[in-house]
Amino acid sequence: MLYNKYFKMHMKSSFEYRFNMFLISFSQVFICIAEILAVWLLFQRFETVGSWGFYESLLMLGIIYTVYSITECFARGYDEFAKLIKSGEFDRLLIRPVNIHYQIFGSRIEMSKASRIILGIVVSIIALVQIGVDWTVWKVLVLISTYLCGCLVILGLFIIGAGISIYTIENLEFVNIITNGCKELSYYPINIYNKWLARFFTFIIPLACFNYLPVSFIVGNPATIPWLCAISPLLGGLFIIPCLIFFNLSIKRYQSTGT
Amino acid sequence: MTKIIEFSDICKQFKVPEKQKGKWSFLKNFFNRKCKIIKALNNVSFDIEEGDIVGYIGPNGAGKSTTIKIMSGILTPTSGTCAINGYTPWKNRKEYVKNIGVVFGQRSQLWWDVPIIDSFELLKDIYKIPNQEYENTLTLLKEKLHIEDLLNRPLRQLSLGQKMKCELAGSLLHRPKILFLDEPTIGLDAITKLAVRDFIKYINKEWNTTIILTTHDMSDIEALTNKIILIGKGQILYNGSFETIKEKYSHQKIITVELAHEYDEMSLDGYEIISHEKNYVTLKNLSDTTFHAKDFINDISKKYEIVDFSVDSLSVDEILARLYSEYELQEK
Question: Are the C-beta atoms of B107 and B163 separated by less than 8 Å?
């Protein structure tokens, strides 16, 4: 399969700079641990934040870390789309007889994010064990769909950023504000935030759909409607559709850059 | 001969934001962006026949790259129609690009950090080239371009000439019917340049590949092409054989004369003095006259004592410079 080839090429490329990759992987794990510590310290002081305990927050942190790192690892092409345009790489992609999205996925695979994916999964597992969930088949399915939905939503944000950079030829910081903002926001239950902020991150950018809502279902949060929480990841995943439409419309207006 | 490229009435306009100057200009630019429209191509039409090598030339910023990008399906024109190999490039992109190869002289399609051969293997999968065909083509390319020893090295270790050879090989692996070359010989040394040219000719002959090349190196044009298309300010200025243009300027000669001794002031009716240094003088006949060697000797030896002289035609570069300036005058 073509994607396998892309994958091997990226492996080879990054192993040309082994030490560099090791350093990046190490520093990312370090940053992650520092963030976990910050959350832990907060809970040492307050014990609960909006009916949430430390391990519920840790589960949300684990989820966001996993999905964010997976998306960064495999969909970096959208995240760095302005670079693709500036360097003329995007012109190259357009002259190949392969679907353009397939090629954007193939254009960047960041092996150094692998350490954070693993860390995210480990943190999620520790949190789930500590919470002591009564597992049912539904809860497992909801958990899996939560991760999938998370990847789709973050991917959607990257794709919007990519679509905008077709017009601006410049990476816009405000896209980073939203993606990183999502990350920071999502360690704590969304109902502790301002009403409008909570609505924005539920209905406009469905952050809560792979975060507060499904986690509420899994841990049995009495403040929420269980069945609605259970299907929320499926609804949140639909976010990708308008993003793709926007991107495909933008591509038609592509102007290329000089030689 | 069949027409493989038909380009008719293509226009391409770009919207470019206009920078306003003055105090607070960055705020003005941000909130009240004025755009101006640049016409990169203006009713461009031409046909190219199968198996032709066409030189697409023009001064910087004339619209060469834009045309190549439209022909290779990267850009959509504002208006006009184009049929290449039976397809409209920007509509049936995936089908269309299977049969074209593109080399941008200043941008690489190969991977920076992995051996060249791996990049080729990836291209094999991208174009779904059957194993046997791939092996055959690769053997031929290795032999013709002498790149056997380079294939196991990453691109970053290669010299400019070696890179260009590998780029050419990479864009020919799928045996395209049409090859677009954007400045293929830029920055190459004489030997590599000749090798690249020979190879382009060979491909054209063996595979009957139609080749469109843009270049600023006029010796490329002389050595390779049988037809040129001259573009300036987004319009086609000339479309035809290069010989015709050369003929047009064949009455113009550059004459270098060695004189017996130094003269302070020199002038000759019907000729313009280009340079005069010690006892050498370079002249050219005025553009509305035709040069006759006998008359020239008679005229000049009446006034001055000459030892030797040589006559040259205008160089290709000079012809082109003259063409450019002529058309610019017409526009004014």
Answer: no
